[in-house]
What does this fold into?
Amino acid sequence: MVTFQDFQKVDMRVGKITKVEDFPEARKPAYKLWIDFGSLGVKKTSAQITKLYTKEALLNKQVIAVVNFPPKQIANFTSEVLVLGLIKKNSEEVILLKPEIEAELGQRVA
It folds into this structure.
């Protein structure tokens, strides 16, 4: 079990994907994403979401991401945030978590 204080340490924010590129250097098929978090700025990450999403469908999509993990080197790319999603049962397909209604960029998930 985690306490509410433990949960509060995870800083999850709303961002909008502003740029998407293929990431051929990744071990598994992935995209490079640039996500605008408003006052927190634009952060980059990689995401293995190529099975359900095209680059065009991802552009301008709002997503939820953890913004306070340390940067992680993935091949020749530094990931600064972790986009949240769920993995479909018996599959490697990832469904992104997103606000149901458009939210303010950088808004914290509570």
